[in-house]
Structures are given as structure tokens and as C-alpha cells.
Amino acid sequence: MPAGSGFKLTYSTMFNPPPELHARFDAALASFRRDGMGRDHAQWIGGMSVGGARHFEVRSPIDQDWLIGRFVEGSAQDVDRAVQAAQAAYPGWSATPWRERVALLRRAARLIEERVYAISAAVALEVGKNRMESIGEVQETADLIDWYCDQMEAHDGFDRALPDDPLPQFRSHNRTVLRPYGVWAVIAPFNFPFALAGGPLGPALVAGNTAVFKVSPETSLSGRLLLDALHDAGLPAGVINFVTGGDATGRALVEHPGVAGITFTGSQAVGMQVLRQSVQGPFPRPCIVEMGGKNATIVSRRADLERAALGIVRSAFGLSGQKCSACSRVYVEQPVADDLRARLVRLAGELSVGDPTQQAHWMGPVIGRAAYERYAGLAEHLRQVGRIDTGGRWLTEGALARGFFVAPTVAQAPLDDRAWVDEHFLPLVLVGEVASVAEGISRANASDYGLTAGFYGTPDEVAYFHRHIEAGVTYANRPQGATTGAWPGYQPFGGWKGSGSTGKAIGSFYYLPQYLREQSRTVVE
């Protein structure tokens, strides 16, 4: 962030940045539009650029006329080469003293910070997120890498002496050491392609694993820019490898017998397939699966309704609802339901929707045609079973017709309708009335997911909420976001139940050791 400004960007502070931030983003955006768009990009395997016979285009969801770049459709053979390169690099990298690995990863974090505006401009155009969300994602990646370097240092490389055995005639020395697994695969989604690739790669690499990673084909440039920062930091050839492509490329990576561990972020359906695949070989592999959410906010009759409405709108419509932590359902006590609903409708109507790279627009498009059509289908369903209070339509005026823009939507449906259960990944929030806070929490918990949850009410009610809610990340009385906004060092981020496989949160004290396995050592003199 701007030197000397005193401004620390997090998802809590992003609503009031200094003017210099906007000026630098605008300059980076103009530069990328002029010089960075429409290029051909190779894969990176074993320290070399690798092309391919087949290619695909990435176009901006803001305007389908904007070509972000052309990328290789990675084959199973490319994946095999990448895994073999990572295997070949593993002995040297794992033997590198951990302090040297930390120094290299910190160098990568500094390069990301130096390039934060250039990278975030590309991310904004490729993903369709606004400038603050884009800058935040890139900065968060640097902070995540730093966090895991901090943890490696705080635990002295996870090498700890234990008491000697109580033997009268021998000296029997004991210690416990955490050691890496081997080749780690990382697969990241479209909505946070930089942070959800760089976040897992940081601990995997600092722990001594080598890596092969891919991101969603819709956001392949973000992955390439992350690769560039890691490579430019001086990581040895083969330590980090980047492949591009769609489902077939990802499947080849997950199923490769040379992969020792996997981190996947995406839908629950695919995540469960990845998890099952991880135990299909001759022995189980560690598998960190971060999946979806159907995140609820409960609003008490005693809540500050203006604060609640602001937090819900920010969480429901930030990144056009395309966050696994987005608030998609609200349970509000009946006496204040009409008041809250009116506030949500007013705030949603005040949101400026358009090209999110422009400072004037807060909400951008959905990612592509499939999401665009899914939104229309859900809106029509809600008209039939319930009511749409605001939104529920495509936005096709002028330049918006060249992208995938939809209106932020507040709606109602019977509490037993499937719309309350399914994850939609769209800028739509359901508001339902309940008789009590206890009923709201019970309905919130009646979900296979357990990622984030929000609450607005009195201190006593907050304590009750925390005792009974089934979610890995909770926020109470937070106007900056009812269910969104975790930042490394401030709020760990990970889900319970169907939202995650390990119960250990990204950016927490407990995440890094998952990339290591314990070896007990006893030596008798």
C-alpha cells in the first residue's frame, strides 16, 4: 500500500482507502489495457515454458470483446511432465535449510507487493471484481505467504527435542521433526485465483514440498502472474510448476500417482470427488478440501438494523455474490423483518453496477454465461414460489449488454424451499422471518455447509449464538460484512461440515502443519 500513508489494507479497511491507491490502480489498469491484454501464455514446467497443441481464450466477463489472453489446454502428458519435474526437484528443495526457504518465500511476497497494482488490474479485468476486492486479494496473498513464514520461524522449523529415555546405562535422545511429503498439487477456483493458489502454495513450499498448480481456466492469467512472482523470487527449477486447462487437466493432476498431497478449493460436489480420489491409491494422501457455503445471518429484534443491513448487503453482493463466504440467507425475528427488508431493498438499489474497474462502480458482472443463465432461472423460480423485493433481472443497458451483469436481488421464499439449501454463487439473498433467535440459529445449522455465519443482536445473544452456531468463521455485529472479510492474522478462514475436510483454517496457527508429517527420532549413544 502507499508508503507512509499509514493505511493497512484488509477486507475490513477497504471501504475508505487513500486517494493515492486509486491513482496507482488507474495507472496500472491503463498500462495493462495497453500492453498486457491479448497475449499468448505458456505453461511452466521444470523451469521452462511449455506450449501445447490446443489453446483456449480467456475473455473478460465485463465485456466479451476484451481478450485477456490465450492459454495452453494442458494435456495429461503435460501434467505428468510437471509432476516428474517436481519430483526431481524435491530432494534438493526439501534438503534446503528451512530458513533459506523462508527467505525465498518472503522475497516472493515482497515481489507480489511491489506488483500489487499491476497484478490487481489484471485480476479485476479477468475476474470482474472491483478494484478494492482485486487489490485486497493480491495483498492478502502476500500476507498469507508472510504468515506461514512467520509460523515456520515461530516453531523453529518444527524440530523439537523431547526428554531422554530414563535408561540407567545408555543415553537415549528423542526428538520430533515435521517433514514434507513430496509433490503437492494445488487447484484454485475462479473467484480468488491469486489468493487461493498462493495461499496454499505458501505453506506447501515453505514446508519443503514442491508443487504443481492450476487455477480455473476462466482466470488463467491470474495463475500465470502468481507463477511469475514465485519464479522471479529465485525458486529453483522444478520447485514450482504451472499447468493450464479445464476439468481434464485438473483430473489428471488429482489422479496422478506421483502427487503426495492435494489442496483443492471449489464446489462441494467436485471437492468430495477429490477427497475420495485421495484415498484410492496404495495409501491415503493428505487432502485439504475447501468447499462451498450457504452462509446465514441471524438478526435479532434487538439488533442495530442499519448496521445489520449494511453488513448483509456488503456480504451478499460483494464480488456479485461469488464468494463461498457470501451471505445468501437471512433469518430475522418477525417484529423487525419488514424494517430490515426495507433497508436491504434501499441499500441494494443504491449499489452502482457496471465496469468494476471504474471507481464509481461497486458491483461487477457474474463470471460467465452459465452463471448468467443460472441467475435468470433462480429469479424465475422465486417469482413462482415467493417474491422478489428488488432485482431479479439482467442488466443489458448500453455497454452492460457485452458482459454478464445482473441486478443485486433481495427475495423471499417459503422456508422449506430448495433455494434456502442450494449454493447459488449469485448476488441474491433470501430474507425469511423466524419467531426467535434460537429458531434462526436452528435453521442456519440445518445445512450440509458450515463455513461462515453472521449475527446481529445484544451481547448476551451473541454469546448464545457462538455457543450454538455450526460454522467455522463467525462475525457478530459487523457492518463491514455480515459473513465475509477474513484476513490473515486477524480472522482464520475455514469451514465445518461440508465446507471443509480438515477443520483447520487458512491463515490460522494450525494450517501449516498439514503440509508436514511427523517423524519421531530416537538415537541411543
The averaged pLDDT comes out at: 96
Radius of gyration: 24 Å
Instruction: Sum up the overall morphology in one term.
Output: globular
Helical stretch tally: 14
Strand content: 15-25%
Q: Termini separation (Å)?
A: 55 Å
Structural class: alpha/beta
The largest sheet has its strands arranged as 15-16-17-14-13-19-20
What's the main sheet like? 7 strands, mixed
Helix content: 25-40%
Low-pLDDT residue spans = none
Extended strand count: 22
TL;DR?
With 525 residues, this protein is an alpha/beta fold. The chain is 38% helix and 20% strand. Helix 2 packs across helix 8 (247-255), helix 3 (98-114) packs antiparallel against helix 5 and helix 4 crosses helix 5.
Compile the SSE list and pairings:
Layout: H1 19-35, E1 39-41, E2 43-45, E3 48-50, E4 55-59, E5 67-72, H2 76-95, H3 98-114, H4 116-127, H5 131-154, E6 159-162, E7 172-180, E8 183-187, H6 195-206, E9 210-214, H7 220-232, E10 240-242, H8 247-255, E11 261-265, H9 268-277, E12 287-290, E13 295-299, H10 305-317, E14 327-333, H11 337-350, H12 369-385, E15 387-390, E16 409-412, E17 428-434, H13 437-445, E18 449-450, E19 452-456, H14 459-468, E20 473-476, E21 496-497, E22 516-524
Parallel strand pairs: 1-5, 8-9, 8-11, 9-10, 11-12, 13-14, 13-19, 14-17, 16-17, 19-20
Antiparallel strand pairs: 2-3, 4-5, 6-7, 7-22, 15-16, 18-21
